[in-house]
Amino acid sequence: GIVLVAINPYEQLPIYEQDVIYAYSGQNMGDMDPHIFAVAEEAYKQMARDEKNQSIIVSGESGAGKTVSAKYAMRFFATVGGSASETNIEAKVLASSPIMEAIGNAKTTRNDNSSRFGKYIQIGFDKRYHIIGANMRTYLLEKSRVVFQAEDERNYHIFYQLCASASLPEFKELGLSK
């Protein structure tokens, strides 16, 4: 398959704007510089041409920009599929509650708020290749973090939030004393 190596610049760059999406839309892989939009366009084209499901695997270390890359791919699909103005698809799919973040995020040596969840995102398209729905499944990557943390790392945020709340009257109702 196609492999794209990307880095997280930790700032917004003009290489992810709407005009860049349109520049990559309809292009063949290799005709333009390597880009997340080139990968997304190839998957979109193959989905339309072969009428088969496609997958994009975004992998990397903590803080590498996996979630950001997934957002850009979804923005590409929403734009070329004609649904960008109607729905802010990447915001809707990736919206997660503060409770989920507290349960699944922890401090690592590279990132103070690193998601320890893996994410599997499915995007549904209609016969005209417009996005009609999406869902995200999450799975906990590090069950061992509950009982052991590497040096300079922390347990899940929820552990410290519960400890800090132990003296509140509401805490007694949770049955988590001692």
Automatic annotation (TrEMBL):
Database matches in InterPro entries: Kinesin_motor_dom_sf, Myosin_head_motor_dom-like, P-loop_NTPase
GO cellular-component term (any): membrane
Residue stretches making up the Myosin motor domain: 1-178
The entry's keywords: Actin-binding, ATP-binding, Motor protein, Myosin, Nucleotide-binding
One record GO biological process: actin filament organization
Pfam families per UniProt: Myosin_head
Coiled-coil region(s): none
Presence of the UniProt keyword Nucleotide-binding in the record: yes
Protein family: Belongs to the TRAFAC class myosin-kinesin ATPase superfamily. Myosin family.
Name of the protein described by the UniProt record: MYO5B protein
Organism name: Dromas ardeola
